[in-house]
Amino acid sequence: MKRITTILSLIAVVTLTSVSCKDKASQKIVADNVESAVSRDEADKKVPVMTFEKTEHDFGTIQRGTPQETVFTFTNTGDAPLIITDAKSSCGCTVPNPPKEPIAPGEKGELLVKFNGSGQNQVTKTITVTANTAKGSEIVRIKAFVQAPEATPAGPVK
């Protein structure tokens, strides 16, 4: 009796499986889904590209404590609006100020960088700009040779 039940159960499973798989996969495709996938894939190909005129600025020799600033000019050479979400420097002595508005394709933007002149001898600072580019971030650098102010002689002055 158990064998007959097992055999009938097995036949029922095989029959249900073969009946449910008779539909061809190509008949299950919805045309609207294909069209939306194609348009989504085309939109994914459109990304902004942040192209800087220069990626490094050298302030040269400066006196310690003398504030400096420079502007990194860039162009969106991609085919989608460029949105900068963050700009951070490698230390607190450097403050980047990126544009707040999206940069349209073909348009220029400016990244203002202020450096307070701290440090000693040769200093290099990096600024990481986070944006919606393919890489996700861009890096620019500033550097300077920082000299100590003229030392005053110790002792009484005549």
UniProtKB/TrEMBL annotation:
Gene3D superfamilies: Immunoglobulins. InterPro entries: DUF1573, Ig-like_fold. This is DUF1573 domain-containing protein. It comes from Flagellimonas abyssi.
